[in-house]
Amino acid sequence: MPKKYYLFYIFFIFSLFSFSQNQQKRKVYTTQKIENPPEIDGNLNEPIWGKANIASDFVMVEPGDGDPIPGSHETSVKLVYDNEAIYIAAYLMEDNPEQIIKQFTQRDNLQQTEFFLIDINTYDDGENQTRFIVTAAGTQADARMTGDNEDYSYNVVWESAVSQDEEGWYVEMKIPYSALRFPDKPVQQWGIQFYREISHLNEGYVWNYVDKSLGQLSQYTGLLEGISNIDPPGRLSLYPYISTAADQYDGNDDFNFNAGMDLKYGINDSFTLDMTLVPDFGQTAYDEVELNLGPFEQVFGENRAFFTEGTELFNKGELFYSRRVGSTPIGYNDAQKDLLENEEIIDNPEKTDLINALKVSGRTDRGLGVGFFNAITNKEEAVFRDTITGNRRRWITEPVANYNILVLDQRFNKNSSITLVNTNVTRNGNFRDGNVTAFLFDIFNKENSFNFEGQAKMSNVNLPGQNKTGFASQFSVERTKGNFRYEMGHEFANETYDINDLGISFINNYNNFSWGGSYQIFEPKGIYNNYQIKIYGQHLRRYRPDISVNTGMGGSFFAMTRKRFAFGGALEINSEFRDFFEPRAENAYVLYKPFGGSRFFVSSDYRKRFAYDVRIYYEEYYKSTQNSFSLNIEPRFRFNDKFNMIYEFEYKYENDRPSYVDQTQEMIIFGNRDQKSLENSISASYNFNTKQGLNLSFRHFWSTANFTEDQFSRLIEDGALEPIIYRKDQDGNPDANFNIWNLDLSYRWQFAPGSEAVLLYRNAIFNQDKLSHLGFDESLDNLFAQPSRHNLSLRVVYFIDYNRVKNLFRS
Fold first, then answer.
1. Alpha-carbon distance 359 to 272, whole Å?
2. Which residue among 179, 264, 294, 396 is the one 20 to 30 A from 513 at the CA level?
3. What's the CA gap between 91 and 73, in Å, rounded?
4. DSSP 337
5. What is the pLDDT of residues 661-698, one digit of tens each?
6. 187, 142, 162: which is closest to 309 by C-alpha?
7. Does 63 sit behind a cis peptide bond, omega within 30 degrees of 0 on the bond before it?
8. 475: part of which helix (H) or strand (E)?
9. From the Swiss-Prot or TrEMBL record, what is one GO molecular function term (predicted)?
10. Is 9 helix (H, G, I), strand (E, B) or coil?
11. What predicted TM-score, i.e. pTM, was given to this entire model?
12. Could you tell me whether strands 190-198 and 548-561 are parallel, antiparallel, or unpaired per DSSP bridges?
């Protein structure tokens, strides 16, 4: 979308709507200040609880809408505070205590156990809040909430305990102010919501009523009053760590020792500084690597805690792909091209080392969120050796690099926001630099019945002797009220748009339109707790030259019965598809035939000891032999309250897909590829209690790609393919046989609040060759013939609260 039209959309929205929220009547809870805090033991027998006000009269939010909680499950909550923390007591009555579902799990893992939840929105802005959960077994979970999105990578230190008797179960919590960020003013008014999950009844109840048919859940908090003139202690937390690792691979033994520290400092009551000094990421989960023959890099999730905790501001606009920091050096693949005659590569690091990183984030009492992120990575070099003279030389593949992000996010009217984001990557020396600036808005009208969302992004890439500027935009309008809903959207990017220095974007040069409509229920109807029917469509175009890429439409259905059996599926049809990226060349595309696809899934009741998920997908290309199929089966079994295991089997097959093979000066070569993959994985945990547990994570992935010998072609005009003679044994064999095995077995012990020790054994094997004709057993034999990596590591992190240390020295 040209920039002048995008600015018109912004002006239209701001001029058409008055941004006042249609507030519903809110419940109000008035708390009291105490002198002597209660002991957090789950036994609610302290006198202060008898004097505190009561929050009661809970109403149903799932599956019904506003029905009062039955007397057999009466729920009440009390809250008090002092200068250090707020304290919560929850009374959760149950006439059949033996039916309470509780399962021992580790932090942030709820499984199917029953739980009590409190949402705290210290700015009462209807959007940003902190969630604290305690299960019936005593497991803690915490998350940052942005709208309806939960981020459980957020971890803070707080206390809780549970108890149970013949009348029900009870929760006691202490949430220190160090776990919260709030306005710096004498009188606080916070949004607050209490929720109770009764799993064995398949019901959930809230304190303040939630209208599911309108707006977002976060806009329906009650009001917490009475907190005033608090003098919270300074917020400074230290997380020093030590780690040791013994590694054995291909006859070589290696031993490492590391020590470092993470730091959290409360600049004031609203803003927090997070730093990682001498970071250690040795025990991060393995990546689920696959055979990748496509034109784009494989995207992995972030496993490093520093880059996942409290990053909701930095993820605005989807400009931050944290795996860029410490990723493969930008010159890694160019090292081979720089070889001189008689030289060989003896070292070429695949990762850059992170020197340090920090982030500052918070929100003012006027709703302005400010975030700043900065990270520095070290220089990496490839080492070449002359095979005749033995001389060595070094070649820089990645210089010292600085990554930073600045975010300004203004919330208003408890349902809307405008945001400015800037990302920047600066590399030392004559290398590539990147800068991206984005303006975002997310606005609801005053009735909360329509949402208007948009983005305008400008990218700048500085290359030696060249500056490349790009632009992209997005605009959508959505009906957000009632059973019938609809939406329309537009996305645009010119041919020079590039955010891949700190973000990730596979494609540019597009001009796309989309639409959709849906019908859904918010109260049980017949045998269903809920169901949703959708129809949708899209029209994809190239911006330059202006030609059609694809037009498609489809429909989907999702339903869940009263017995928590879920099922659904979708049907889609598409016109021919012009793929401008598979050829790996500018202004070239391959034309794929029109195609249709269908998918279906079923999911049984997870509350039962045995449950399962099954997913099936099939895609057929018309007037072509090309098709694809996938099957995913995921059974799970809960042996008892301590032992749980999930097994996943996935099979994929793709037949006769015209795929890129090679490129010469004269032509782009394609071949018909058959590709199949088989994946087996196991995830299991045995928890001695909520503080100690064994965890197993295993994955074996096998995939082959076979190009049919007599079906090679060259790409010609209009995306057509013309047959050619290409011999795999002479011109180059594009076949692939890919096999990878990963096993992690760990013991985790949380020996003190915020402190833990993790002992991890890791086993990994990898093999890739051209033997695509091998069967599963033969390929597995070849895999086990490869050297195996064995790694044993121990990491201990200790939480130090500055205030406790200070008081200890004083005493």
1. 8
2. 294
3. 10
4. G
5. 999 988 999 999 999 999 999 999 999 999 999 999 99
6. 142
7. yes
8. strand 466-479
9. carbohydrate binding
10. helix
11. 0.89
12. unpaired
b/e for 474-501, b at 16 or more Cβ within 10 A? bbbbbebbeeebebebbbbbbeebbbbb
Rg of the chain's alpha carbons, rounded to an integer? Answer: 29
DSSP for 81-123, please give it.
E-SSEEEEEEEEE-S-GGG-------TT--TT--EEEEEEETT
Identify which of 305, 318, 383 has the alpha carbon closest to the alpha carbon of residue 347.
383
CA distance 151 to 518: 27
Strand 668-687, strand 692-715: pairing? antiparallel
Three-state secondary structure readout of 389-453: CCCEEEEEEECCEEEEEEEEEEEECCCEEEEEEEEEEEECCCCCEEEEEEEEEEEECCCCCEEEE
What are the residues whose beta carbons fall under 8 Å from the beta carbon of 51, sequence distance 6 or more?
Answer: 32
Instruction: Output the six-digit token pair for 389.
Output: 């003279």
Encoded tokens for 220: 């329906």
Residue 203: which pLDDT band, with cuts at 50, 70 and 90? very high
User: 761 Cβ partners below 8 Å, 6+ apart?
Assistant: 744, 745, 746, 790, 791, 792
Nearest to 615 by CA among 627, 598, 596, 628: 598
Residue 338 confidence (pLDDT): 82
Residue 468 has a pLDDT of 95
- Provide the 8-state DSSP code for 187: B
* Ramachandran angles phi, psi of 43, nearest 5°: -100, 110
Token pair, residue 60, equals 């149903």
